Amino acid sequence: MEAGRKLDTLIAKYIMGWRGCQKAKMSDWWYGYPPNGDDQTMIPYYSTDIASAWDVMLEFGDIIILRDGSEWGCSIQEGDDEYFVKTHTPMLSICLAALDAIKHKEE
Predict the structure, then answer these.
(1) CA pair distance 8, 23, nearest whole angstrom
(2) The total number of structural domains that make up the chain
(3) Contacts 24+ apart (CB under 8 A), 75-80
(4) Rounded CA gap, 67 and 103, in Å?
(5) pLDDT in tens, 62-92
(6) 36, CA 20 to 30 Å: which among 18, 19, 58, 97?
(7) Predicted model pTM
(8) What is the Cα–Cα distance from 1 to 87, expressed in whole angstroms?
(9) How far apart are CA 84 and CA 14, in angstroms?
(10) Stretch (H or E) spanning 76
């Protein structure tokens, strides 16, 4: 999966606890309800903005971010399980590793 608004929406819904996530009909504006909010707002750019990706990291316990040349890796440790993803940006690696960890946690 590539970085972009669809990935941001998956992160918002499954990792960050947003509700009612959807795309505006006439634009590329994705919005929803934050976990502690009653007003709709734009979903953060988790997969392309490092500050927003940092919020995703804070949802997990043990995380390692590493750089190998032009690639970035993210390792999330959940109990005895490790979820590792390596991509071209730290933000994308964080988001994909987080989704992988959540997917396995729900199984």
Answers:
(1) 11
(2) 1
(3) 76/100, 76/101, 78/104, 78/105
(4) 25
(5) 899 999 999 999 999 988 899 999 999 999 9
(6) 97
(7) 0.90
(8) 10
(9) 18
(10) strand 71-78
| Range of the structural domain that residue 24 is part of | 5-106
Please report, for the domain that includes residue 70, its CATH number: 3.30.2120.10
User: Cβ(40)–Cβ(1) under 8 Å?
Assistant: no
59 neighbors 41 (Cβ within 8 angstroms): no
Angle at 105 between CA 95 and CA 4, to 5 degrees: 20
**Number of CB atoms found within 10 A of residue 56's CB:** 24
Burial 70-88 (b: 16+ CB within 10 A, else e): eebbbbbeeeeeebebbbe
